[in-house]
């Protein structure tokens, strides 16, 4: 059933950034509406063990953490909607958002927390072993591969950074790159070449991630990697326990194309030390604007920042309206 609603704060997208923004906005009596989006809870809903989110002595499950954040946001006064924003109008005041259900929301401020998604190789075996040895975040999951052998797929800054990070934890790191030279910065490349725990498979592309499926053995998970040299056709099989795909992320910003300032990769641009976009009253928090850290805890911190900035904007807006009414 379609509705016409108004809110002081509309939050587009869930996950740590969106839910935290909702908690702070609700506690400021702003009665926020949060539209959950296509994947409520974001990337953490496909993450099994989370060991680096503060406040939990033992590992927790990503979906459970997102359920708790959602419940907390609702308990303090957030209205959540299982819907998708299909269009936004930042030229009107208040702002307007159209939803897939046909509903329309007007809002004094908007917080965008639509996140980003890791690019994957698109292999069936990759999907099969996700969270069973296949990951797209070394800082998130590298700890689970201490003293083990892993591979990193990619050749840019992200891949080199992940390989160097994992070399501090793992027995051996194999960097697999489909070309004969890296795209990463030269200084980072040199650090990689100088690290005795890292080897490089040049001109190789991943053909299959090898492993034991659930129900087929006592220790299900990744056991190896099969790659093919794209110049010679030679096949290489490498024994290892983990595969980290580092070929980039895609921010979920297509909805805001030509409406908000973005960088060349599509990440929303915000003011320094702020979540403010180039349009006053519109804020961006989490992976939708952060290509460096991409952690749940940093996303949550930015959600807090966005809500506080929205609260200040609304207070100034209301003060100005009162002054204008008094002047009349």
Radius of gyration: 22 Å
- The count of strands amounts to 19
- Which residues form runs of ≥5 with pLDDT under 50? none
The helix/strand class is: alpha/beta
Number of helical regions: 7
The coarse silhouette is elongated
Mean pLDDT rating: 94
Helix content: 25-40%
Report the β-strand fraction as a percent range: 25-35%
The main β sheet shows up as: 7 strands, mixed
Helix-strand sequence: EHEEEHEEEEEHEHEHEHEEEEEEEH
State the assembly state of the protein chains. single chain
Can you tag this structure with a few keywords?
328 residues; 27% helix; seven-stranded mixed sheet; 27% strand; five-stranded parallel sheet; alpha/beta
Layout of helices and strands:
Layout: E1 4-12, H1 15-27, E2 33-35, E3 49-50, E4 60-61, H2 62-75, E5 79-81, E6 85-89, E7 95-99, E8 104-112, E9 116-118, H3 124-128, E10 134-135, H4 138-141, E11 149-153, H5 157-167, E12 172-176, H6 186-194, E13 198-201, E14 204-212, E15 221-229, E16 235-239, E17 242-245, E18 249-251, E19 282-284, H7 296-327
Parallel strand pairs: 1-2, 1-8, 2-5, 8-19, 10-17, 11-12, 11-17, 12-13
Antiparallel strand pairs: 3-4, 6-7, 7-8, 9-18, 14-15, 15-16
Helix pairs in contact: 1-2, 1-7, 5-6
